[in-house]
Amino acid sequence: MVTVILALALALTYWGPGAPPTATAFPSARPGPAPRGSFAWSLSNAETGTFVGLWGTSTSVVLGSKSGLTAYDAATGDRIWSWKPPRGGLLCNMSHSTSLGIGAFTYGVWAENPGIERCDHLQTVSVASGTLGWTRAVSLVADGSTGFPDRLGGTSLSISGDVVTAPFAGSRTHDHHVTDVLSADVHTGRVKWTTDFGPATMQGGCRLTGQAQGLVGTVYVLAECGDQARLLSLGDGPPTRPIGMLALPGCDSARPLTAVRRRLSGFMTVRGSRLLAGCHLSDPGGGRLSLLSAGTDRLVPLDTTGASTITVAFGSGAVYAPANLVLSADTLYLVKGDNSYNGRTDGVIAVDLATGRQRWSTTLPGASSVTLTAPTGSGVEVLAGAGSPTSLSTVTGAGQVAPGPSWKAGKATSFGVDPYVDPPRAVRAGDHLAIAFPGSYEPGQTTVGVLPLKVSHD
What we know:
Blueprint: H1 2-8, E1 23-25, E2 41-44, H2 45-48, E3 51-56, E4 60-65, E5 68-73, E6 79-83, E7 90-94, E8 102-110, E9 117-126, E10 138-139, E11 158-160, E12 163-168, E13 180-185, E14 191-194, E15 206-215, E16 218-225, E17 228-234, E18 244-252, H3 259-265, E19 266-271, E20 274-279, E21 288-293, E22 299-302, H4 310-313, E23 326-327, E24 331-337, E25 345-352, E26 358-363, E27 370-375, E28 380-384, E29 390-397, E30 400-407, E31 425-429, E32 432-436, E33 446-452
Antiparallel strand pairs: 1-6, 2-33, 3-4, 4-5, 5-6, 7-8, 8-9, 9-10, 11-12, 12-13, 13-14, 15-16, 16-17, 17-18, 19-20, 20-21, 21-22, 23-24, 24-25, 25-26, 27-28, 28-29, 29-30, 31-32, 32-33
């Protein structure tokens, strides 16, 4: 497990201090990429570099790679704007989602430790225009600290409402295993507060795990409190102690966990006004997931029976946004299958967000590996197959599968690249679907492909 995780940490190079980086706009449309296979347009690893993240607007796709951020017109593939870290620096992490058209990201350098990146700057950007949110990036390392966040610190990067969260290396952090958190104002970049517990416990005996997410102005952190995993809520004041505490159903922390393993045993992500939190997603018996809506203090346990929760955050889930976790207005879609590494996945499970109960479960005929991409008005877009052929279908209920485009041998190689450790990620961009392939490291492999969706899908 640790070997896989370390292999996923990507290199960053020196950028140094100085004036804030700026985005480059392309007012005149540049020729878009040529079509490949069933994609309207796509880009290879040789054209983009190593994948970091993906955001979408109603008309554009923002691709993050180790060299920076680039926005493309979803319909044509024309470049709209780009941003590169100053002095040759590289991008570390992108927030799982955007908030009010703004995304958050961290960037950094190669650390002196071989194979470890130093992700010590935080910034925000308008996904439509490429305009940076703050005059200067926020430092994620306290004065005098000998530690720093690495890419695994992306588990605490988030943006929601008026708050941005990120990993923070305080005075008690002496390596790159950062568990402390920083909270900043989304409008100004002013740091509201930072924690500085390091490996020590907070007042009350809880220990931070490095998992944190902002939810419409409130920061939630995942902590180990004795033999129970709990969600702690922190306000705008100094976080010496939490203002609220919720026990995560079914999430005990009695099993021995290493520092890296502890991060992967917990899980948090925010989508809109809802927080999903859970634990032990890779356990053979299935992981635990709960939902918290903004403005409430009630966790709704979600029925994950028969779901392959390991595909949500195994391995690359520590550095990228989670895969195979699709939310619509009232439904959570999960992959149906064996909850084991390289296990068979063959269908979709729909869970009612209000009750936590499963609405339906269905198997896709002939499928041996599926990936969930994006919601439609009444269902979810699903990639079926990890080899040849691979197809995109719309699933709206038990036995209700509408086939879409397919990729034959020679055109679908990226779908079969490490689908368990690095499954595809996807975002909607209006009537287009952008699919990224984090496991594409070879120059000729596809990093991102975009295809139009049928209007009837919505």
